[in-house]
Design a protein that fits this description.
Helix content is 41%, strand content 12%. By secondary structure, it is α/β, with parallel strands linked by helices. Helix 2 packs parallel to helix 3.
């Protein structure tokens, strides 16, 4: 299993938590919003393993508690890049090889705050009226 991380200590903690299976983890430090870096990662996985069966996207972040009128545009851009761009970037890199091999799955893990959130999360979460069917 291949995982990505931002900080080496996060990957070390993951290996410790999965104990006996930690040796089977391959970790790569990658900026999930950098299309070239993600494409290089996917190409490397395909060279090493010959296939890519699934992508589980859990990349995201939260900068809540800020009133919308006090929100700094820099924070909006950062949240967008981390929460939306990362999923797009990974999907764009994995879909072509999955189509070529005629199988694969993509799972995007999102926050419950997208549907039900506390006050002060407007810049992070979708409004309640945008619930999916």
């Amino acid at each position: 299993m291949v995982v990505t991380y931002r900080k080496p200590e996060e990957f070390d903690a993951l290996k410790t938590r999965v104990r006996a299976h930690g040796a089977a983890l391959e970790g790569y430090r990658v900026d999930a919003t950098d299309e070239a870096a993600v494409r290089n990662l996917v190409d490397g996985i395909l060279r090493k393993h010959g296939h890519l069966d699934a992508l589980v996207n859990t990349v995201g972040g939260y900068a809540g508690g800020i009133k919308l009128w006090n929100w700094i545009p820099k924070c909006s851009i950062s949240c967008y890049r981390l929460n939306l761009r990362s999923g797009y970037t990974f999907a764009r890199a994995v879909v072509p090889p999955m189509l070529k091999q005629r199988h694969g799955a993509i799972v995007n893990v999102v926050s419950k705050a997208a549907l039900d959130h506390a006050a002060g999360a407007a810049a992070y979460a979708a409004p309640k009226r945008l619930r999916w069917p």
